[in-house]
Amino acid sequence: MTEPTAGTAPESTAEHPADHPRVAAVKEELRRAGAAPASIAGLILLPDAVTTAAAAAAALGVEVGQIANSLVFDADGEPLLVLTSGRHRVDTDRVAALVGAGRVGRADKDVVLAATGQVIGGVAPVGHPAPLRTLVDVALDDYDRVWAAGGVARSVFPTTFAELIAVTGGTAAQVAADRAGG
After folding, report:
1. Which segments carry the region annotation Disordered (predicted)?
2. What structural domains does the chain harbor?
């Protein structure tokens, strides 16, 4: 399928998320971290907010597994960012074992905002007030290109598994109970 290119998604004339401080912070952090120019220039705005992997995949014309969901968890009181393939759910017991936490659960919206400076549905892998401990789902390595949120719910950018690890300082990990998906 044809994938969108920079500037192809229509923007609302009432708002310009491309100029939003959260999107600018994501672009700046990608630059600083040495992301490929195509990832930075490829940050696009979709016509509508996409707050699920299925919606993002449909809007982009890609497989749901190519969507890198940015999920914030509470790991014994500390925020933990898990970048997971949209094709499956995170196994919180597995993640707890991986990070040595007694308990891992989804963070509430206030914790997500405080930790990332971004709201649920638009959380990017980077551009946060401070670096977050990050796990990157090995299932994302099954794809040559994946798409991650760009700081607001309408923004996405193309990247790779290796680039996600590099720009986040994250650790590759199997975060789903069943690597085959689900």
Report:
1. 1-21
2. 17-173 (3.90.960.10)
